[in-house]
Amino acid sequence: MALSFSINAAIRPQYQGKVGHGNKRFPDSIRNLVKTAGVPSLVSAPQESLKKGNWVKLICGASFEDVVDIRNLSLVYTLAGVDCIDCAADAAVVTAVNEGIEVAREIVNIRRPWVMISVNDDEDLHFRKAEFDPEDCPLDCSKPCEIVCPANAILLQKDKSTAKFSSDTNTLHGGVITERCYGCGRCIPVCPYDKIRVITYVRDAVATAELLKRNDVDAIEIHTNGRQTVPFKDLWDGLGDSTGYLKLVAVSLPYAGNFNLSLMNEIYSIMEPHLNCLNLCWMAAQ
């Protein structure tokens, strides 16, 4: 059975700078600590884990784009021996994942996990952000949105710097920290003034194709709602020959009983002419 971890923790960097082979940034005490903690020295290759059914994937989040946290999460979970790190289809995010992986491999000689990006062909809950105007919020609001946000993606405060020079101190500033918001929606029902809205988006196929051609992404997960296959075909055609750089294509769709089989066959017929990678994975979520 495949296993996935969805993690959006706030881990702050202790080591910054460009990654390079032979870098001496890590003292022996750190390497010894990591080895003592039991970093797996022998782990199967990602494709072998797929075949055996013990595939483990870290899910950073299709909309989570805090590159500092993503870099550090990638470092830690590479050391833990995950098979794959799933992240947003954003160039800076992918760079952060790869940097975290390489830093981990500087500390301990361990095999690389696959880097996966997540994209969508239509509206999907994984691809959205919360949004509101903090100046519309009452000054005495208890800020429940800030309290319930698991990603620390909301910050509301008075603008003290302007308060000294302006009589208008009856507004809050800040709001949603876009790169940290991954669209969980917890803030929406707790807002007592119904000020929070959801912004959905679809990843651009052309931009995604260019990202794949950088050749530092190993896999892609395509989220489709399954209601119709036209958006999927548009996305797949837009990716073109960039799929030739991949080792794995995963298709995520809602569970719909017996209907899933016919839908999967239809999607496969769309993919087949350009399905150059060795592995295809189907995921049906209830």
From TrEMBL:
Pfam families for this protein: LdpA_C, LdpA_Fe-S-bd
Keywords per UniProt: 4Fe-4S, Iron, Iron-sulfur, Metal-binding
Gene Ontology molecular functions: 4 iron, 4 sulfur cluster binding; metal ion binding
Residues of the 4Fe-4S ferredoxin-type domain: 128-159, 172-201
Keyword Iron-sulfur: yes
Source superkingdom: Eukaryota
Family annotation (InterPro entries): 4Fe4S_Fe-S-bd, 4Fe4S_Fe_S_CS, Fe-S-bd_prot_LdpA_C, LdpA_Fe-S-bd, PSI_iron-sulfur_center
Protein name: Uncharacterized protein MANES_15G004200
